[in-house]
Specification:
single chain, 34% helix, acyltransferase, Aminopeptidase, globular, N-acetyltransferase, alpha+beta, 6 helices, transferase
């Protein structure tokens, strides 16, 4: 069974301008590009993805297991008008963080166009309506003001400064509950 058929059972989403579907091993080249952008490396960190094959393995080893376990994970965001993969958005069961974390990243040429808000709003709604989560969190670096603004626009509120186990970097924790 190839990766595409296996992932068809998982939910995809659509907005006015975007298709949002589970990230697949076939997205390896795109994942390689995204994970090596300057903003990813600065704000999220080096995931040691140095080739298309590394990107494919990253999807198989880091994203697909959570998708199969929980029914949600990382989603590739595709612009409808031309089929271009522009970013990712997802819900993550992150070690050291209680609850589910929403995250997003876009290629530089697709930032500041409303795509991150459009995709993240869709995934946030899915977290509550499709996946029946009662609360979602988000973490970001103190200096990542763009991320903080987007989280606040999505309705998440700053809670506290945290440090994940085994890490030294302080992160800002945001959250929103279903009733908000």
């Amino acid at each position: 069974m190839d990766g595409n058929n296996k992932l068809e059972k998982f939910r995809s989403f659509e907005t006015e301008r975007l298709l949002i579907r589970p990230t697949q091993p076939e997205d390896g080249e795109f994942i390689y590009q995204l994970l090596n952008t300057p903003k990813w490396l600065k704000n999220i960190g080096n995931r040691k993805v140095y080739s298309e094959e590394d990107g494919r393995k990253y999807v198989l080893n880091k994203m697909t297991p959570q998708l199969e376990r929980l029914g949600f994970s990382n989603y590739t965001v595709i612009r409808k008008k031309d089929g271009v993969k522009i970013g990712t958005c997802g819900l993550y069961d992150r070690e050291g963080l209680e609850g589910v974390d929403i995250g997003f990243a876009f290629l530089p040429e697709f930032e500041k166009k409303g795509y991150a808000f459009e995709a993240s709003s869709c995934i946030k709604n899915a977290a509550f309506e499709e996946f029946d989560l009662s609360k979602i969190n988000a973490i970001t670096l103190k200096e990542n003001l763009d991320s903080q603004k987007l989280l606040e626009r999505l309705g998440l509120s700053f809670q506290e400064v945290i440090t994940l186990p085994g890490e030294s970097e302080e992160l800002m924790l945001y959250s929103v509950s279903r009733e908000n």
